[in-house]
Each structure stands twice: as structure tokens, then as C-alpha cells.
């Protein structure tokens, strides 16, 4: 049955109501880096730790910090490090923490992602699950991570999610859905009462402004912290929320006294390529699906990601 094909479906336990965000914030910070889609890149992890340290900022990982890290030592060190910070689980953490539910990678890939790619994602997940099986304590810690967090910075309410406002693996906040069905995302924003949703999961970044009952609202998807997000680039992307703009930001928007920005995660590209090639040689599922993107970025431009009336340093 089509709805239960591994990698295509959205398991019922992935879902929550947009109303869950109407609660007191559990995370308060002066400035916050939200890091989604690290995908097991240890050099990107090093880079975001340094970025946060430089500013004294709080780090929140919004899922899929695991993916390419099938090497046991790397699996252990990435998870031990991330779990010292605020974190929500992505579909990858959820699937490796639990027993095989038939959801495959749990990506809930939409129809525009091809069958071969979905199959390769399921193969990567199977390998990662094999590695994770030797670490029951880490699996347990991943399994009890929340699916969403509410943060507050200078009165701004921020919903930190992996997918969207109603599913851990939802695609409503993807650049594609925000172009084709912005009214759906606007309704989710209105139903949640948050000013900013910071999400990831759907591979490509986007920042889109909305008019909301509380004033301007924003959906910011960082794409991937551990892989390039734009054509001919070699850096990942994280979301930064703070009172003063960063000189590093590629683009951003201002909401009252706060700026929400996309900042580059400039990791050691050569080291990451070498590590990736060793673990995932030519012909492996990860090499076939991701090597080209890791080497030189996807066919996507900064201008396509910025859908705000606000400042942009992209040009
Ligand atoms: Fe994901």
C-alpha cells in the first residue's frame, strides 16, 4: 500500500498539534544558534561549537544530527557532544532510537523526490541503525528527546521543530511548499501562536515572512548545517536569532528588536570530503545521493531562499 512504503510515510507518532506550541518557553537565551541537518559531519559540529562560543550563544540542534556517521567512534562522539546542548529529535534519531517500524528513514519524502533516492536513504538508515545498535544508552537518550521546543528571545516566541508545525517529518515548511501552498504554512503559524518557526529536514533553506495576528511572523528553514545549500558553495547553514546582526549573515529579517539570520557554517571542506569518501566510497548509497552536493552544493541560489522584504547581503 502506497501510504506505508518505507521512506514515504509519516508515522502517526511523528504527529502533534500546532496548539502544543501555546506554552511557556522552556528555553530562554540572549542569542541562539539553531542547527538542523548536521548529518553526522564532525567538522561542521566543530564549527558551530566555535560560532556559539565566540558569541556566548546558546545552541539548539533541531534534528538529523546523525546520518553519514556510521563509523562507531564518530557516532558516539557526535551524539555525546550534541546531547550536551538543547536538542529535538529528527526522523533519523527517531528511527535509530526505535525498533524498525517500517517507516524506513522516516523522511516522508514527497512525490518530487525520486524512488531511487528514497531507496538509498532507507539503505543509509539501515547501516546507521546497525552502528547505533551497539549504543543502547545513546539510543535511549535520543528516543526521549522532544519533538519540539519553545524558545523565547526578547519577547519573541520561537518554535523549534525538525519538520513543520504538525509533524516531525512534515514538508509544509519546505521551500517547495512555501512557494506552492503558503496559505497552509500561514494557517499553521496562526494556529501555533509563535512568531518564528525554525525548522530543517527538507534539505533546502528558505526564509519566508508572513503577516500574522501578532505582527510579522517568519518561517526559517536552515536547510543543512552539515552540507552546502547553494550552487558552487562549500559551507553549511545555521539559523541565528539575536538582538544584534551578525557580520557573517547571508540574509536575514528583523522582527521588532530581534534579528533572524542565515549564517554560514564554514567547516573544513577538504577534511570532510576525505572523511566522507573513506566511509562512503564511490557506488555507496550516500555517495550516489549526496557526494555531488557535498562537493559543490545543490542547484539552488541564495536569491531563491530569501522571501522577505528585509535586508539581504546575498548579492
Ligand atoms: Fe529529516
Structure description:
- The chain starts with 26 loop residues before the first strand and ends in an 8-residue tail after the last strand.
- It has ten helices and 13 strands.
- β2, α1 (42-55) and β3 (58-62) form a beta-alpha-beta unit.
- It is α/β, with parallel strands linked by helices and 315 residues long.
- It has one domain (14-89, 146-281, 297-307): Purple Acid Phosphatase, chain A, domain 2 (4-Layer Sandwich).
- The protein has helices spanning 42-55, 72-82, 91-97, 115-132, 136-143, 175-180, 182-192, 269-279, 285-296, 302-305, and strands at 27-28, 32-35, 58-62, 86-88, 148-153, 156-161, 196-199, 206-212, 215-221, 236-242, 251-255, 258-265, 306-307.
- Bound molecules: fe (ii) ion.
- The site of fe (ii) ion has 6 residues, from loops.
Structural class call reads alpha/beta
Q: How is the quaternary structure best described?
A: single chain
Give a quick account of the main beta sheet: strands, pairing sense, barrel closure: 7 strands, mixed
- Total domains: 1
Backbone CA Rg: 18 Å
Low-confidence residue ranges: none
Short précis:
With 315 residues, the protein is α/β, with parallel strands linked by helices.
Amino acid at each position: 500500500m502506497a501510504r506505508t512504503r518505507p521512506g514515504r510515510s509519516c508515522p502517526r507518532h511523528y504527529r502533534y498539534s500546532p496548539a502544543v506550541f501555546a506554552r511557556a518557553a522552556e528555553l530562554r537565551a540572549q542569542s541562539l544558534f539553531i542547527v538542523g541537518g548536521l548529518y553526522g559531519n564532525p567538522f561542521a559540529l566543530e564549527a558551530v561549537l566555535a560560532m556559539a562560543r565566540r558569541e556566548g550563544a546558546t545552541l539548539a540542534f533541531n534534528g538529523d544530527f546523525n546520518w553519514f556517521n556510521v563509523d562507531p567512534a564518530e557516532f558516539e562522539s557526535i551524539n555525546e557532544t550534541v546531547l550536551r546542548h538543547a536538542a529535538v529529535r529528527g526522523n533519523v534519531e527517531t528511527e535509530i532510537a526505535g525498533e524498525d517500524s517500517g517507516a524506513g528513514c522516516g523522511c516522508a519524502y514527497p512525490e518530487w523526490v525520486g524512488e531511487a533516492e528514497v531507496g538509498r536513504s532507507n539503505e543509509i538508515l539501515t547501516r546507521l541503525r546497525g552502528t547505533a545498535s551497539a549504543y543502547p544508552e545513546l539510543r535511549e537518550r535520543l528516543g526521549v528527546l522532544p519533538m519540539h521546543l519553545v524558545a523565547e528571545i526578547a519577547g519573541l516566541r520561537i518554535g523549534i521543530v525538525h519538520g513543520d508545525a504538525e509533524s516531525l517529518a512534515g514538508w509544509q515548511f519546505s521551500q517547495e511548499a512555501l512557494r506552492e501552498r503558503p496559505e497552509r504554512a500561514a494557517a499553521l503559524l496562526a494556529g501555533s501562536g509563535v512568531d518564528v518557526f525554525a525548522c530543517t529536514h527538507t534539505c533546502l533553506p528558505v526564509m519566508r515572512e508572513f503577516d500574522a495576528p501578532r505582527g510579522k511572523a517568519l518561517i526559517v528553514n536552515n536547510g543543512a548545517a552539515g552540507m552546502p545549500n547553494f550552487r558552487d558553495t562549500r559551507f553549511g547553514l545555521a539559523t541565528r536569532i539575536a538582538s544584534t546582526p551578525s557580520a557573517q549573515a547571508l540574509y536575514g529579517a528583523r522582527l521588532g528588536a530581534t534579528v533572524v539570520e542565515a549564517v554560514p557554517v564554514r567547516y573544513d571542506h577538504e577534511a570532510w570530503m576525505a572523511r566522507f569518501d573513506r566511509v562512503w566510497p564511490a557506488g555507496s548509497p550516500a555517495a550516489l545521493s549526496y557526494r555531488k552536493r557535498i562537493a559543490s552544493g545543490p542547484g539552488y541560489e541564495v536569491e531563491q531562499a530569501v522571501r522577505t522584504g528585509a535586508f539581504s547581503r546575498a548579492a
